[in-house]
Amino acid sequence: MDDAARRARLARRDAALAEAPGYRPVRHLAFVTLFAVAVALLCVAGLRSVTPSEWLALPLMATLANAAEWAFHRRLLHRRRPPFHWVYDAHNRHHAYFVDGDMAIRGRQEWRLILLPWWSIVALAVALLPLLGLLALVSANAARIVLATSMIYVALYELLHLAFHLPDAHPLRRWGVMRWLARHHELHHDPRLMRDYNFNVIVPLWDHVRGTVADDR
């Protein structure tokens, strides 16, 4: 990689971090994780005599979340569409800071360049309320399972995405499955591939369904 280009990219990273000198990375990640776990636990605590058909809401919602992640990433994060142009701009900066071959963060302050805004998980929970209300008319258990699955999915997305940007020497990156998932994501950061391939972060299920998997070949 050209040294001048790398220095320019690092300078842009520093400028972005300077925009939020009071950023608290651990607080950011802790809020998202604890919010997801708290909502999920409340949902689980409210379950009553769950039937096998109601438990199907879990794998169905996880699959739907994977498809939604793929669609959101491909159609909004890599296509500038009003009124969501600000989402595209933020994600475009993320790709400008982290590229294939230079993915690792240098410190916790750079979590700001990777994690979604802290309020995103709250906004998702609120956005789901009308759907959950309708579903609860049919099955309150299924509605709780859907909400719990959604919250845990978002938390896992954030944790895994952050893990993929850890240095290669980090203990988490030694696991075979983690290396495989991280490489899938790293290829997405190749400027030649990012608009068309490897949109899933948690597992590339929908990438396989839609034929958008790129590998080292």
Question: Could you walk me through the main structural features you see in this protein, from its secondary elements to its overall organization?
Answer:
This protein has 217 residues and is mainly alpha-helical. The protein has one domain. Helices cover 64% and strands 0% of the residues. The model has no long low-confidence stretch (mean pLDDT 94).
The DSSP helix count reads 9
Largest sheet: none
Q: Taking Cα atoms only, what radius of gyration do you get, to the nearest Å?
A: 18 Å
Morphology call: globular
Average pLDDT metric: 94
User: From the helix content, strand content and strand pairing, which structural class follows?
Assistant: mainly alpha
Domain unit count: 1
Helical proportion? 55-70%
Order of helices and strands: HHHHHHHHH
**Strand-residue proportion:** under 5%
How far apart the termini lie comes to 20 Å
Question: How many strand segments?
Answer: 0
Low-confidence stretches: none
Please identify the oligomeric state.
Answer: single chain
Record the SSE blueprint.
Layout: H1 3-18, H2 25-45, H3 52-55, H4 57-77, H5 85-97, H6 120-138, H7 140-164, H8 176-188, H9 205-210
Helix pairs in contact: 2-7, 4-7, 6-7
Summarize the model shown.
The protein is globular and about 60 Å long.
